[in-house]
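Got a spare moment? Tell me how you read both lines of this record:
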Amino acid sequence: MTDLIVSDSTPNDDQSNDLAAFDDIYESPTISRLPSHQRPKPSTVCESCPAAVWMAQKNQLQCYCRVTHVMVYSKEEKTALTACDGREMAIEQLLAKQEKADARG
């Protein structure tokens, strides 16, 4: 059985570095195609989340979260999430899927 560790403190430098390591694993294809001036300002953790569904139109950028089932970013709702457990879970699922595919060869 795994021990559950609950902390009410902010992440220490080691924990922050572990979370930052996930930043290079995934980037939204929609976000990656946008010129820098059309990307969310400030940047949001959703840009590198496999559970985020980004949609771009001429003058509109939206992001729907498949974990929370909420529109987390739009013209009206410019929330810039800096951390999210859903992102970490989605990345873990992505890595597990990749590992399984690699094992099959």
Summary: The helical segments are 13-21, 29-33, 85-104. The chain has one domain: 24-104. Confidence is low (pLDDT under 50) at residues 1-19.
